[in-house]
Amino acid sequence: MAINQTVTIKTSPEKIYNALMSAKEFGKVTGAPAEIAQAEGGAFSCFGGQVAGRHLELIPNKRIVQAWRVGAWPEGTYSIVKFEINESGPSTTVDLEHTGFPEGAAEHLESGWHKMYWEPLKAYLE
User: Fold this and answer.
1) Phi/psi of residue 91, nearest 5 degrees
2) Residues facing residue 45 across a β-bridge
3) pLDDT, tens digit (0-9, with 9 covering 90-100), for 2-52
């Protein structure tokens, strides 16, 4: 099962990438503590540790791929989250693909992306 979402935000790819990859900016966007390494293979922790993982692929201002887990999931359980960031005129489109999450988690994750990522990003960046 996969979650695929597309959101368009009236800002630059650089600002979206920075908001997702800078602990300071992510904290401003979400209002929650974050620790985010800046390199492939580096660890991240968001929302005070509720979400954590590692960066698998980073292409600045274009793509972020992460091994991503919710703290309540069984130990060692990771999903794959991919953000594709594309300039679209004065706006930027972010295509999210989230795969490999535990059975029964889709509905919570689907709404969580909107509530915890897209809505705060739009409010902060637009």
Assistant:
1) -115, 175
2) 35, 52
3) 999 999 999 999 999 999 999 999 999 999 999 999 999 999 999 999 999
H/E stretch holding 82: strand 79-88
The residues, any chain, with a CB within 8 Å of residue 15's CB and separated by 6 or more, are 92, 125
Instruction: Tell me the per-residue pLDDT of 78-87, one tens digit each, with 9 for 90 and over.
Output: 999 999 999 9
The tens digit of pLDDT for each residue in 75-122 reads 999 999 999 999 999 999 999 999 999 999 999 999 999 999 999 999
Residue 99 in contact with residue 2, Cβ under 8 Å?
yes
Residues forming beta bridges with residue 18, ordered by sequence position:
none
* Residue 80 to residue 51: CA distance in whole angstroms: 12
Q: Which domains, ranges and CATH numbers included, belong to the chain?
A: 2-125 (3.30.530.20)
Residue 80's nearest CA partner among 17, 1, 20, 24 is: 1
What's the predicted TM-score (pTM) here? 0.95
Separation in Å, CA 33 to CA 1, 51, 55: 30, 11, 18
Tokens of 51: 């979400």
